[in-house]
Amino acid sequence: MDQESIVIVGAGLAAASTVGALRERGHAGPITLIGEESHLPYERPPLSKGFLQGNDEPEDFTVHDAQWYAAQEVTLRLGTAAISVETGKQQVLLADGSAVDYDQLVLATGSRASVGGENPMPGYDLPGVHVLRTLADAKSLRAELTEGAQVAVIGSGWIGMEVAATARQRGARVTVYSPSEVPLAKVFGERFGHYLLELHQRHGVDVRTARAQGIEQVDGHLQVLSDAGSSRADVVLLAIGARPNLQLAETAGLDVDSGVIVDASLRTSNSKILAVGDIAQAFNTRLRRQLRVEHWDNAIRQGKLAAATLMGEEESYDWLPYFFTDQFDLGMEYVGHNSPDDTSVVRGSVESGEFLLFWQDGQRITAAANVNIWDVNDQLRELVGREIPAERLADTGIELGDL
Ligand SMILES: Cc1cc2nc3c(=O)[nH]c(=O)nc-3n(C[C@H](O)[C@H](O)[C@H](O)COP(=O)(O)OP(=O)(O)OC[C@H]3O[C@@H](n4cnc5c(N)ncnc54)[C@H](O)[C@@H]3O)c2cc1C
Q1: Of 42, 129, 227, 274, which shows the fewest CB atoms inside 10 Å?
Q2: Domain map (residue ranges) of the chain
C-alpha cells in the first residue's frame, strides 16, 4: 500500500495537507498533484483579510514552497484542470489531453464563488464586479479598493462582511446589501447578528436590508439595483455564497448530494477514491450525521485523515467543526455545530466586545464561540455536547473550567 500511486486532484489546502501527511506517515510511492490554478496550494482566509488589507503577500500563506514539493518527490501538474475520471481504467483525464493513472485518487476540488447558479445575477460579468475565491480574484479586487472608492458588497455572509471591514480599513465607502435585517442571524441567532451589525455600523459601513436584483453600467459607473432602490458603486463584490466543485465526482459516477458522499474515513462510493475538504459530505462520528463544512481547519484535518485512510490506518472524522473570523477589532473562534433553532446564551458583556457565546438545544450545548477572548477555544470544545443550565453558563462567577 505504501508504494501505490496516489493522485490528488485540486491543489488547495486539503490537498497540501494530504500530501504532507502521506509523506509523514511513510508513503513511499508516487504522488501527483493536479491543480487548475497555476499557484502552489495556498490558504484562502487571508484573501479577505491580510492580503486584501495589503499586510500579507502570497508567500506568507503558501502552504509549502516549491523546494518542499521537490524534496517530497511530488509531481506537480499545476495550471491544468482535470476534466474527467475513468474509473474503469483508473485514470484522470486532463484539459491538456494527457491522462494520469492512479491506484488511489483523492478529490479535493474545493468550492467556487457562486454568481447565482442557474439564474446568475444580471451584470455579474461587468468590469468592476468581483467574486472572491482565488488569489487572482483577490489581486484584482485589492487593486480597486482605493481610498474613497464606493464599494457595494452584495451578500452579508462571512466573506461579504470581512471584505466590507477590509474595504473600510482601506478608506473606501462601503454599502452592504443584506437580504436579512440582521447579518448571519439566520444561522447564528439575532444576538450575534446584532453585535456584528452594530460593529460594522460603528465603523461606518452602510448595511442595508435589501435584496440586490442586478448590476448595471450607467455612464461609466456601476449601479446596484435592489428592492430598496438603486445606488451607484465603483466596485461591486458579489458575495452570495460558494458552491462545491462536484463535476469531476459526477464524471466518476460517485454518490453526490450537496457534496461528495463519503464515510467517516473519507471513502466515496468507489473504494479507490476519497474526497476531502469543502466538497466532502462526510459522516461525522461525533455528531452522528453527514456534514459538509467549508472551513480552513476542516481542510487541514481531513487531509490528514485521508492520508491515514490511504495508509490503511483506522481513524475517523470525529472532531467538531471549527472556524474563525476577523473583522475590524473583532476576532472570533467558533466550535461545534448549532442549528438555527438553538437558543443562545451570552457569558460576559457584549458591550465590552469581549464575551463568550453558547448555543443550546434545551440544555445541551451545540456550539460555542469566543469573541476577543483568547486561549479558551479548547475549553469550549470540551463543553460542546454537555448539558448545562443557561443560568450557569452565563454566570461569570463560575470559572469556565468548573462548569
Ligand atoms: C476569501 C475566503 C476567506 C475565507 N476565510 C475563512 C476563514 O476565515 N476561516 C475559515 O475557517 N475558512 C475560511 N475560508 C474557507 C477555506 O478557505 C476553505 O474551506 C478551504 O480553502 C477549503 O479547502 P479545499 O482544499 O477543500 O478547497 P480549495 O481551497 O477551494 O482548493 C481547491 C482547489 O481545487 C482546484 N480545482 C477545482 N476543480 C479542479 C479540477 N477539475 N482540476 C484541477 N483542479 C481543480 C481549485 O482551482 C482550487 O485551487 C475562506 C475562503 C475564502 C474563499
Answers
A1: 227
A2: 6-110+245-310, 129-241, 329-402
Pairing of the two strands 229-233 and 221-226: antiparallel
pLDDT tens, residue by residue, 63-74? 999 999 999 999
Q: How many CB atoms lie within 10 A of CB 43?
A: 19
Mutation test of ligand 1: which of 8, 19, 109 has the most ligand atoms closer than 8 Å to its C-beta? 109
Taking 50 as the pLDDT cut, the residues of the chain under it are none
pLDDT of residue 112: 98
User: In this predicted structure, what is the pLDDT of residue 386?
Assistant: 97
Identify the CATH class of 129-241. alpha beta
**Closest to 263 (Cα-Cα) out of 251, 250, 276:** 276
- Which CATH code fits 6-110+245-310? 3.50.50.60
* Spacing, Cα 13 to ligand 1 middle (Å): 7
DSSP state of 211: -
- Which of 278, 291, 298, 317 is the best mutation target for the ligand 1 pocket, counting ligand atoms within 8 Å of the beta carbon and taking the most? 278
C-alpha 10 – ligand 1 centre gap (Å): 9
Residue 321's closest CA among 344, 296, 304? Answer: 296
